[in-house]
Design brief:
56% of the residues lie in helices and 7% in strands. By secondary structure, it is of the alpha+beta class. The chain contains 27 helices and ten strands.
Length: 674
């Protein structure tokens, strides 16, 4: 007798071990197959959903997974030849997709399906949404233009693809390195120096400090020497100066492409697809938020100035102002002095393994999932862990997730989720299961301690896990509606929602245990963390406003020669209240969002936070933060549809009303009255 569990189909693990030759061959095979499918669609004399839209969508289902996998390797492989081959393959695949998207003969077939209004009405809702989405993509690719205009647009977009890949490669490959004596790193804990590489310079031992996050952030937060902090920030902002030129060119080309399509600005083109719809909506949102935050920031700046003036006086130096390299240090100092939050003490309770298991348990309980760790997994690096994701009742396998949490040479340098395979329904009724990976850069374990996380790291892991499980929980027929199709000013919402659990004392005390003694985190320490949650919220969120307004300044302009570097530096000083000084370097050179799909979309972080705060306060606080029924409502209305419906539809279904910003404003300490 075959049990029900034995009947459940499980997705096969993917093969990440590819040689450069295999990657190149796969890219050639995928581009050839893409052309064959498009040729066949273009040849249809009587286009229908079945012979036109469905074949194009099935191509996305199959080609998309393999293309994503071989492109993914540039971010994680330890072999530079593999990374380079992956980068070249991504460029070839992107150019092929762009060429296919600009075929007027294929668009003609798709348009005939759309023009058949009776046939369109007969389609299932997701099939109809698919046909409409494809037609819209073709129009936005320039299929309404003349042949000469399309050729010009194609040339522009080819160059944009090349620029994006080059920018990303530079950011991943270039690490800044500085050498410091122990005295120059005064303020850093002993654990920072454990197994740290050293070099001897003129008979003096110096410690090697890179711009990888686990090296950079502690220095910016704890180094007492202003000169040390300045050097590290300069190292970060000068490590790939060529990226300024690439971004400058991309901004001009994006504007050119938008104009060719009949839009005034690139932002106008992008936002048409988002919840915000227009640049004015974004600018009003940012302006209103900035005004509210400025009130908070006034008092915060006064406190930070007082601390720095005292430091300068003690050192017999004159006070010259607040600089970007002061922000993290003095913000951290305020937390320590006002709320007794000692990050080094906090870290002892956040060892990466119990934290990871605890976070998985949160998602497991609320979303009714089960995570099974895979032993000896087929992965791209020994640091990587792999999990199978199942329905809690074993009724269905849902997908595979990978956690790649520590830095290494050539790896992607920030924190993100990479969707590697979208879930979809196959023509035989079986299912292709989603696969995704978290890439992070948390401090590595040493010979004496496990990997220990700051509380900020814990929040980051909760955030990225939110993206990961959003991807896994999407249950659409077509891969077309996977995570990347979710509106960009909503896509951060599900990940931001689960950050809230990282501030709940009852949750933290379940998985925060001392790595040596096994003691649970003391209640008073949790209380100190929670009390400090909104400390510096004005200045922190003004930094987010700055990033969003910089993005709009370079993308919502009709000036193709807008100076990226000058605009970045001027707005950063005006909005964040901290000066950049007179040195070289510019943070825009490593602002990967501007070349990684968030152009004219960075505002979405704060925009989406308004929705996540509303959902948390309205449903989870009211119903109970571990209420599984609320979790399943959330999974059904917010996660499962992916990009197959407008995000506002699922949001209103889950809330039972139109969304409100009141909870968001309260959560960042400004309230509706300001």
């Amino acid at each position: 007798m075959v049990t029900r569990l034995q009947q459940v189909v499980k997705g096969a693990a993917l093969n990440f071990r590819r040689t450069p030759a295999e990657i190149s061959a796969a890219a050639a095979r995928l581009t050839a197959w893409e052309k064959q499918v498009h040729d066949k669609v273009a040849a249809q004399t009587q286009p229908t959903f079945a012979n036109t839209i469905a074949p194009l969508a099935r191509l996305e289902n199959t080609n998309g997974s393999e293309a994503a996998l071989i492109s993914f390797l540039q971010n994680v492989s330890t072999d530079k030849q593999v990374r380079d081959a992956s980068s070249e393959a991504e460029k070839a695949l992107a150019l092929s997709r762009m060429t296919s998207q600009m075929r007027s003969d294929v668009y003609g077939a798709v348009k005939k399906v759309l023009d058949d209004t009776h046939g369109l009405k007969e389609l299932a809702p997701e099939d109809r949404a698919l046909a409409e989405s494809m037609a819209r993509q073709y129009r936005r690719s320039g299929l309404g233009l003349s042949a000469d205009q399309r050729a010009k647009l194609e040339h522009t977009r080819k160059r944009l693809i090349e620029l994006g890949i080059e920018f990303s490669r530079n950011t991943n490959e270039a690490d800044g390195v500085e050498l410091f004596t122990r005295a120059e790193l005064a303020g850093l804990p002993d654990s920072y120096f454990c197994e740290r590489a050293t070099e001897t310079v003129d008979g003096v031992e110096k410690f090697v400090v890179t711009t990888k996050y686990p090296d950079l952030v502690p220095v910016m937060q704890m180094a007492k020497s202003e000169a040390t902090r300045r050097r590290m920030l300069l190292a970060e902002e000068t490590r790939c100066p060529e990226n300024i030129r690439l971004l400058q060119e991309a901004v001009a080309l994006r504007l050119d492409a938008a104009r060719q399509l009949g839009y005034k600005t690139h932002a106008e083109f992008v936002l048409e697809e988002n919840m915000a719809k227009t640049p004015n909506s974004v600018l009003e949102f940012e302006k209103d938020l900035r005004q509210r935050l400025d009130v908070l920031a006034d008092s915060e700046i006064t406190e930070i100035e007082r601390l720095k003036r005292a430091d300068m006086k003690a050192a017999n130096e004159s006070y010259s102002g607040l600089y970007n390299w002061d922000f993290r240090y003095y913000s951290n100092l305020v937390k320590e002095r006002k709320h007794k939050v000692n990050e080094e003490r906090v870290k002892q309770y956040f060892s990466v393994e119990p934290v990871t298991r605890g976070i998985l348990d949160i998602y497991q309980d609320i979303l009714k999932l089960r995570f099974d760790k895979v032993e000896n997994p087929p992965v791209w690096h020994p640091d990587v862990t792999m999990y199978e994701v199942w329905e809690a009742d074993n009724s269905a396998f849902l997908g595979h997730i990978y956690l790649d949490l520590f830095p290494r040479q050539g790896k992607y340098g920030h924190a993100c989720v990479n969707p590697i395979q979208n879930g979809s329904e196959n023509s035989d009724g079986s299912r292709t299961y989603p696969v995704a990976a978290i890439l992070a850069n948390f401090p590595k374990p040493t010979s004496t301690t496990p990997a220990l996380l700051t509380h900020d790291d814990v929040i980051t892991l909760l955030h990225e896990m939110g993206h990961l499980l959003h991807h896994i929980c999407i249950q659409t027929k077509w891969a077309h509606f996977g995570l990347d199709s979710v509106q960009h000013d909503f896509i951060e919402c599900p990940s931001q929602l689960f950050e809230n659990w990282g501030w709940e004392p009852s949750v933290l005390q379940k998985f925060a245990v001392h790595y040596k003694t096994g003691e649970r985190i003391p209640k008073e320490l949790v209380a100190q963390l929670v009390a400090a949650k909104n400390e510096g919220a004005g200045l922190f969120n003004l930094r987010q406003v700055f990033f969003g307004m910089f993005d709009m300044a370079i993308h919502n302009t009709e000036d193709a020669s807008v100076d990226v570097e000058a605009t970045y530096k001027a707005l950063r000083e005006q909005i964040t209240r901290f000066s950049g000084g007179s040195g070289p370097g510019c943070g825009a050179a490593t602002f990967g969002h501007m070349m990684g799909g968030y152009d004219a979309g960075y505002y979405g972080y704060l925009w989406a936070k308004s929705f996540s705060a509303d959902m948390y306060a309205t449903r989870f606080i009211k119903d109970g933060i571990t209420n599984a029924q609320t979790g399943m409502d959330y999974r059904r209305e917010i996660l499962c549809p992916g990009g197959s419906i407008d995000a506002s539809v699922g949001l209103e279904r889950f809330l039972g009303r139109a969304p409100s910003s009141a909870a968001f404003l309260e959560s960042i300490g400004v309230g509706n009255s300001q």
